[in-house]
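Fresh eyes needed here. I'd like your take on this protein's tokenised backbone:
***
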Amino acid sequence: MEKRNSIYYFISDVHLGLDVKNPLKREKKLVRVLEGVPLETEAVFLMGDIFDFWYEYKYV
């Protein structure tokens, strides 16, 4: 069996939706990163705090 090297990308703590000065700039930067991922990439993992949103915060 031939050994194959796999490419994985891990992206975390993007905090989309965070109240920042220029949220569109942050979103466009993420899109540029994702568009730059090579086609031969095995997987892209979106981890931890991609969206800065907690829908039940009033009940904690």
